[in-house]
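Narrative of activities, Objective 1.

The group set out to show that a structural description can be obtained from nothing but a protein's sequence at a throughput compatible with the screening campaign. Below is one input-output pair from the validation batch, recorded exactly as produced.
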Amino acid sequence: MRADAQRNADKLRTAAAELFRERGLQAPLKEIARRAGVSHGTLYNLFGTREALIDEVVTDLAATRLDEAAEQALAREDAWEGFAYYIETLCELQATDPAIGDVVAGRYPGAERLMTVCERSYAATARIIERAQQAGALRPDFTREDLLFIFGTNALLARAAKDTAPDAWRRSAAFMLDGLRTEAAHPLPTGPLTSQQMYQVMGNLTGTP
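Output recorded for this entry:
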């Protein structure tokens, strides 16, 4: 890559990182180019697609944040505390970092490197849930799909309440966690989502095909 192209790529990465943190992964590409001081065409020439830019800018940060949350949850001696920590941490990330919030909600599946991180996080989520259920603390009918659905709806709440009630997600998460304890469980009126249903619903929630 020529020196001028490398400089433009670096400026675009910096601008994209800033705007993704401010607005989430749907931040307009034209605004990213404008903040970087380059043309829209230069962005496409260097990165090609939004997904490629996301992979360049967001994937490593998402891996660090999500891996750390899972490791901390699994390291807790009390399985319920680990499960609650994991949910609260990811809900807080959704509320405070729009880019990571979009990752947790499963937006932009075309970003291949990012989806590898999400798959690893998904596997860790299964271990965290299973551990809490084996300890008898988490209701046994709770599934990974249920948790991902919770994250999807929390993302919408966090985004909508950002300016008026930025801590509203904490109240919602507390209610939800109390309802997931084994002793609070009652028979559910319908079965869990399948993986395919979950992906379709999450796509509808996030506006991602």
